[in-house]
Amino acid sequence: MTTHRPVVGVSGNGYLIDGEYPVQASGDHNLEAIADVTGAMTVILPSIPEINGVADVLRICDGFVFTGGRPNVHPEEYGEQPTAAHGHFDRRRDRVALPLIRAAVDAGKPVLGICRGFQEMNVAFGGTLHPEIRDLPGRINHRMPPDGTMAEKFALRHEVTLKDEGMFARIFGSNRVMTNSLHGQGIKSPGERIVVEGWAPDGTEEAIRVRNAPGFALAVQWHPEWNANDDPVSRRLYEAFGRALRGLAID
Q1: Does the pLDDT of residue 199 top 60, yes or no?
Q2: How buried is 3 (Cβ within 10 angstroms: 0-12 exposed, 13-18 middle, 19+ buried)?
Q3: Is the pLDDT of residue 2 over 90?
Q4: pLDDT grade, residue 84 (50/70/90)?
Q5: Model confidence at 30: pLDDT above 60
Q6: Catalytic site positions
Q7: Of 50, 76, 193, 200, which has the fewest Cβ atoms less than 10 A away?
Q8: Half-sphere exposure of residue 125, counting CA atoms within 13 Å on the CB side?
Q9: Residue 138: C-alpha distances to residues 2, 21, 87, 111, 141 (Å)
Q10: Helix (H, G, I), strand (E, B) or coil at 116
Q11: What is residue 103's three-state secondary structure?
Q12: Which residues contact 172 (CB under 8 A, 6 or more apart)?
């Protein structure tokens, strides 16, 4: 059982300041949600494979959160060719996140995936992705609204139905929850060890876990970091992650 204040590694994203100065960063809400609800420390893990050895990161961190990000997982990672619909990519994050997810899960380190992190978890275990959910027959537009305040963009938008007596239903105390929606891609085929436990009204996969994982290994397609302290669904998810960081049972 962890007795010190847990350390959570948070995936970094690459950005260019003024179009030319490269930085690695993570949104404040990602860091604050972890600190406020779980009490853990956070460190941003640069998506630079040359400086981030998996073994070293596993020694430093008690758990991991793989956050959202504008670039998408490159389709070569799941055996497909890139198209305009796939958007743009961050190959360095691919090379850091995918092997780290597999190693952290197998080591029993708690892992929480969010949005792109959800998609990374699926790809890490052999799954594939649709490049644009809204182009599929019968699907709704899951992307962030283009206009409005941040609160309006992150507002609750649709229900997610959860598998009865599944891990997420246990965490939330219900098999139906309301979530926000800010993603373009989604699961095409689940990875071999991926168990889908939550679906949007249009059938889009929204909550997954890793089968036979020795520790907490869950991911959601929505963004629970927004209003994590006050939204009951978000708070329960981070509380469960926080308990796992300390070697405690979810309930």
Answers
A1: yes
A2: exposed
A3: no
A4: confident
A5: yes
A6: 115, 223, 225
A7: 50
A8: 29
A9: 46, 42, 22, 32, 10
A10: helix
A11: helix
A12: 162, 233, 236, 237
